[in-house]
Amino acid sequence: GQQVMQIPQYQHVQEGEDFTTYCNSSTTLSNIQWYKQRPGGHPVFLIQLVKSGEVKKQKRLTFQFGEAKKNSSLHITATQTTDVGTYFCAGPNSGGSNYKLTFGKGTLLTVNP
Amino acid sequence: DGGITQSPKYLFRKEGQNVTLSCEQNLNHDAMYWYRQDPGQGLRLIYYSQIVNDFQKGDIAEGYSVSREKKESFPLTVTSAQKNPTAFYLCASWGSSYNEQFFGPGTRLTVL
Fold this sequence. Notes:
The structure holds 2 protein chains of 2 kinds. Chain A is mainly β.
């Protein structure tokens, strides 16, 4: 079945450093979504990318969808303590509908103030 | 306010007891889901339901059961057959008008 892999599993940075997490799918995706889960909280949707090579920005966060639509990345510039949490990518199962998603295992980001 | 509620937030049970986790949504979403989260394991799908009175097994359904008698409700029962039930359980819903799945606050189950 479809697999979505994320690396790294953990990342610890000093506040102000940049951070990147990578997501790779075993199959071509119609879209990819990113979620953030704060410690003790629940996943919250951040963004969806649909087009090949798409790049979207949300303040210090930059999301990229690969040309082959099988990989994606999330880059945070100048991390802050508020960025702490686990970042998940997710892709729809075959058929393209977001009705059923496969989640990566996530990257846990910790930030040292 | 529209959203998903899960209760209770923390639940403790003795080994061998069945326990039912509640999930209610007022978003008018057709699809609902149960995920299990363990440290370093991400989100693993237990059961999902696309419409009332219909549900399908996810990747780790063994030891769990669900029902979907109402659109708003999707309770999960963790049975005594589940070998390692201690985990964080997340309920989610999805509506075709939206891109994303919406998650409830979760229930942390500890089996002693």
